[in-house]
Write a structure and sequence with these properties.
There is one protein chain. The chain is mainly α and 206 residues long. It is built from 8 helices and 4 strands, in the order H-H-E-E-H-H-H-E-E-H-H-H.
């Protein structure tokens, strides 16, 4: 099947993708693989093996429309500029990232939306340089997974840590937060003698 050419025009999406392609090619390639290729899944109803997502049936949970590929890539690349230790970039790239995100990209401001753990630019660059098969500390999460009516579009995607990815599973962001609170409330009320939330937090986080 035809492989589309995702170019680098002078739009914010094109500017950002071009910057990473030529300055941080390993990160660019890592993002491109995650966005463009389906996972390797050999069991269950929806088997895939690193196929182009736009060639899958639109009803498949891993399907991504061809037009969304560069938009999702640009969103994820822009978010890395908010990771701890992200490099300073020229004004044109910074403006492009801000246009894509809807807010200014600033180093050290991004945390995993599920676990709250900081995300490191140096760590994602190192992982991109020396990947370990089947392991990653950086996952593409969805506010609402396809199985729950979500779509593989830029507005529905974000970076999540390995811990956040394992906690969220196939749940929506809102359902994940609800589950975390329910577990914590059970621990507070039943397993810790109905102590206050403040005391529970102090026991484990201080």
């Amino acid at each position: 099947m035809r492989t589309p050419a995702f170019g680098y025009d002078e739009t914010p999406v094109g500017i950002l993708r071009r910057f990473f392609r030529y300055n941080y090619p390993r990160i660019f390639d890592k993002v491109a693989r995650q966005v463009r290729r389906s996972p390797r899944r050999q069991t269950g109803q929806f088997k895939t093996n690193r196929q182009n997502r736009w060639n899958l049936d639109p009803g498949h949970p891993d399907y991504t429309a061809e037009t969304q590929i560069p938009l999702i890539e640009a969103k994820l690349l822009a978010l890395t500029l908010c990771f701890e230790g992200a490099p300073a970039v020229q004004a044109e790239v910074k403006e492009a990232a801000g246009r894509i995100l809807g807010y200014q990209a600033q180093s050290g401001t991004y945390q995993c939306p599920i676990s709250g753990r900081p995300m490191s630019f140096a760590a994602i660059e190192a992982e991109a340089r020396t990947p370990v098969h089947g392991r990653s500390s950086f996952h593409v999460g969805h506010v609402r997974p396809k199985a729950m009516g979500g779509e593989n579009v830029a507005d529905n995607t974000y970076w999540t840590s390995d811990l956040g990815n394992r906690i969220q599973g196939d749940k929506s962001w809102a359902d994940t937060v609800k589950t975390i609170i329910e577990i914590a409330e059970y621990q507070r009320r039943v397993k810790h003698g109905n102590i206050s939330w403040g005391e529970l937090v102090n026991r484990y986080l201080h």
